[in-house]
């Protein structure tokens, strides 16, 4: 038998494995598609407008002019109102801070802004930023700074011009002739301009939404949870392959001869996988804390609940895969495709804040998005147990649903 016969035989085996072929070609296509759509805004594709809450606490003309100028910026879509009791209300600071978690930044024009602009001193605009996003708050601050710089220049010009005219009129009145030496007046103008050049009349202040104690959030606060979720999914999916291997080897048939129900067998397998996934989470977060100085947030109980709910959902998904796959090799290929797709779509590889808004919403069909979102609420925003009850509840519900379907669908032979 020649090498060509061996190669042909292996190719025939490969092409008979429909699921293997699907994984071979479908997996990279899906991952490339998700990554390309998610990161399209970074590579010159069509860019969606930034929907930014704007709080206008001042009723003066300068505040109105600033809102009008911001409205003309093509990249911005200003949110000036919100609904309360079915009615549109002017945006408030507290409502804007709630929206910043989703919109990533907000602009506040404080009370007294117009008066401070007219007087040429002490005016400020505040940009509230989401610490989980490294792009949008910077863009918004640059846009606001560009406008306030122009406004500051106009203020300086008006103030300096007015002072120059006053000085000139005073000199003319004293001299009663046109032979003027402007040297001393130029010196006075320069002295008058100096305070404005050292400290511009309008300042752009930033306020971080971050509530947790200590230093600003680090990359490890985002990356450790994201990759921990992905590897927990990988670990749980290996349990599905192991379960199918036991079925192929006849081990499950032997277990059924014992005085134990089929449901108990599956629940025992699930419990082993769940305990392993939970321990894996604990180890990864402990290493992140001890080695990388990762922040653990303000609620250890909330963190433990997120670990447990994530491990439960991942284990339920693994049992679901085992119920629908016929062979171990099929489960390996499909689980790899599912885990990679969920990781790319759900925020394990990059923050969901950088992807289009519609994709952020769609991502929440995955347990990855709920898990990474819950961990961010704890580690980045300093939330407590109450703040993660929704994501934890959704994850526990997913795990219960997956496990229920798996028990009904799984075949021991």
TrEMBL record:
Pfam families: ABC2_membrane_3. The keyword Plastid does not apply. The chain crosses the membrane at residues 21-43, 224-244, 265-292, 298-322, 334-352, 388-407. Keywords: Cell membrane, Membrane, Transmembrane, Transmembrane helix, Transport. It is a multi-pass membrane protein. PROSITE patterns: ABC_TM2 (PS51012). GO terms for cellular component: plasma membrane. One of its GO terms (molecular function) is ABC-type transporter activity. It is found in: Cell membrane. This is ABC-2 type transport system permease protein.
